[in-house]
Design goal:
The chain has 403 residues and is α/β, with parallel strands linked by helices. The chain has helices spanning 7-25, 28-39, 51-55, 57-72, 77-91, 108-130, 139-143, 145-148, 208-213, 218-231, 236-241, 271-287, 289-292, 295-311, 316-329, 334-347, 350-359, 395-399; strands spanning 176-181, 188-195, 247-255, 260-268, 372-377, 391-392. Strands 3-4-2-5-1-6 form a six-stranded mixed sheet, with helices on both faces. A hairpin with a 4-residue loop joins strand 3 (247-255) and strand 4. Helix 10 packs across helix 14 (295-311), helix 10 packs across helix 16 (334-347) and helix 10 crosses helix 17. The radius of gyration is 25 Å and the shape is globular.
């Protein structure tokens, strides 16, 4: 609120951000994820650009370097004006949400009142510093924060939630396989992504309980349990890849938000053989289903999921994060989201797991399935012909598209 922007401060911050990007490029997982986002994000002809594009390290790097050039050439005023406009827009924002966690049994309103007092005290100083520019813009809304709390709907017309997410996965007719040999890396990483729009949140057309009764997201949660069953610590994927020394770790994960199913193999000494080991494992599971997918393994996967979900609720910041995420996903409360998850998890059986495997997970073993595979490695890494043909690329070829 009280930031004073100057050429020296802008250059200092930008140089730190550029240094952070350089560090990202030395992490095989981070750079693989950035490249994968580039190939797995489709820009819509109409509507805003994807947030993934705006936060991409490639766009950030091009933008930050342009800022440096502009400031060093003595044209910092335009940047300073833009920063001031961004700050003022945030301070005077009329639509948004405030998340405050409170102890059980305490009045939430008292915390809102205290926050309002502290905010207004800061705003008065801000308005005094800004003079006529700030007069009348926000003081009324800020002072009325306590009175207005809870009067505006969180959901539905005029509300903040749910936040709409435009699915941007590419429609592929054949697989895309790209290899980025990078001298900055000491180990390899492979990320494979396919489209997987299986998650469903309450639509509001029926009551929550009526929608839950139909189990609309059962397919997603079957994939979730299957991914945990195959990829958990000391599980099948762990033993097939880490147990043989091909990589430090590997996992399969369905993304609720992006609608994609992902296989990741990271910190790999031999990523090519890790891919072959994953394919062989999925083939073995397909042929010997009952040996791999039994009651013990299903129970172990459920226990691992319960522990993971519970551990994410052990600190105040994690609880707040979970509450906000629940709203973003389309649930009116964290408890509602928890119930949605738990009922779906309990309903998943061997039949649903088999369907999820045949329809989705098994596709990672098919070299002809239309998915995106990004392989980053040190320059000397070997790509075996058995994993298919990879197009050799450079990071510069992607960076050029953002200039």
């Amino acid at each position: 609120m009280f930031s004073q922007f100057s050429s020296e401060r802008i250059l200092s911050v930008v140089q730190n951000l550029l240094s952070s990007i350089s560090s990202t490029k030395r992490s095989e997982y981070s750079i693989s994820n950035a490249v994968s986002l580039h190939y797995n994000t489709v820009q819509k002809p109409s509507g805003p650009r994807s947030a993934n594009s705006h936060i991409s390290i490639f766009e950030q790097e091009a933008f930050l370097k342009a800022v440096v050039c502009q400031v060093k050439s003595g044209n910092a005023k335009g940047i300073i004006d833009s920063l001031n406009q961004i700050r003022d827009a945030l301070i005077h924002a009329e639509k948004g949400f405030l998340a405050i966690s409170t102890p059980i049994g305490k009045s939430a309103q008292s915390y809102v009142d205290e926050y309002s007092r502290q905010w207004f005290a800061c705003y008065e100083k801000y308005a005094e510093n800004r003079g006529s520019e700030a007069n009348g813009k926000s003081s009324n809304s800020v002072s009325g924060l306590s009175e207005s709390a809870g009067k505006h709907p969180a959901f539905g017309k005029g509300g903040v939630f749910p936040i709409e997410y435009a699915k941007r996965s590419p429609d592929l007719e054949q697989p895309i396989q790209v290899h980025f040999p990078l001298a900055s890396l000491q180990s390899s990483c492979v990320i494979m992504k396919m489209k997987n729009h299986t998650f469903c949140a309450p639509t509001g057309k029926l009551s929550f309980e009526e929608e839950l009764q139909s189990l609309p997201a059962l397919e997603y949660y079957a994939i979730y349990i299957l991914a945990e069953l195959i990829g958990r610590t000391d599980g099948f994927l762990y033993n097939a890849i880490r147990g043989k020394g091909f990589a430090y770790g590997a996992f399969i994960h369905p993304s609720l938000w992006t609608g994609q199913l992902t296989f990741v193999c990271y910190r790999a000494s031999d990523a090519a053989r890790a891919i072959l080991a994953m394919r062989q494992l999925l083939h073995d599971i397909d042929v010997n289903w009952d040996r791999y997918i039994n009651d013990f393994e299903i129970s172990a996967a459920r226990s691992s999921i319960v522990y993971s979900n519970s551990s994410k609720m052990c600190t105040p910041i994690n609880i707040v994060d979970h509450c906000i995420s629940s709203n973003v996903y389309g649930f009116e409360s964290a408890s509602q989201y928890n119930r949605w998850r738990n009922v779906h998890f309990a309903a998943v059986g061997k039949k649903e797991l088999r369907q999820a495997f045949d329809k989705y997970v098994k596709s990672f073993a098919d070299p002809n399935y239309p998915l995106v595979t990004v392989f980053t490695s040190p320059p000397e890494a070997e790509l075996l012909p058995e994993i298919g043909e990879f197009e050799r690329k450079t990071l510069e070829s992607i960076s050029e598209q953002y200039k």
